[in-house]
């Protein structure tokens, strides 16, 4: 059996316990989104967001989060889902 590379091991980790590197990228997404949406936001924040969303570990984490993430509007049309799924890790809806 082939050994998993360190990158694949990291990607196969529990999505509820992301690596420090991935947490930094998620934090950057939040900060750049806030900046972009602010009255003083600019295109550099949008480019930073695009770059972060192209990162393999970010894409894998979003995929692995599955049920914890809202359904994208485009997916709602294809799957017939009519509202966002809401899941609370703390047990509250």
Question: Can you lay out the helices and strands and say which pair or pack?
Answer:
Blueprint (H helix, E strand, L loop, with lengths): L5 H6 L8 H18 L5 H12 L1 H10 L7 H7 L14
Helix pairs in contact: 2-3
Please explain how this structure is put together.
There is one protein chain. By secondary structure, the chain is mainly α. The protein contains 5 helices and no strands. The chain has helices spanning 6-11, 20-37, 43-54, 56-65, 73-79. Helix 2 runs antiparallel to helix 3 (43-54). The protein is globular, with a radius of gyration of 16 Å. The termini are far apart.
What would the keywords be for this entry?
globular, 0% strand, 5 helices, 93 residues, mainly alpha, disordered C terminus, single chain
What's the β-strand tally?
0
Mean pLDDT across the residues is: 79
Order of helices and strands: HHHHH
Q: Which stretches of 5+ consecutive residues score pLDDT under 50?
A: 81-93
Radius of gyration: 16 Å
Helix content: 55-70%
Structural class: mainly alpha
Largest sheet: none
End-to-end gap: 43 Å
Tell me, what's the shape? globular
The number of helical runs is: 5
């Amino acid at each position: 059996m082939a050994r998993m590379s360190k990158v694949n091991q990291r990607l196969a980790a529990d999505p509820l316990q992301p690596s420090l590197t991935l947490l930094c990228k998620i934090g950057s997404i939040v900060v750049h989104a806030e900046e972009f949406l602010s009255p003083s936001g600019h295109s550099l924040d949008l480019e930073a967001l695009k770059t972060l969303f192209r990162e393999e570990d970010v894409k894998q984490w979003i995929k692995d989060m599955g049920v914890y993430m809202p359904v994208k509007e485009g997916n709602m049309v294809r799957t017939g889902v009519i509202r966002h799924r809401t899941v609370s890790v703390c047990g509250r809806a």
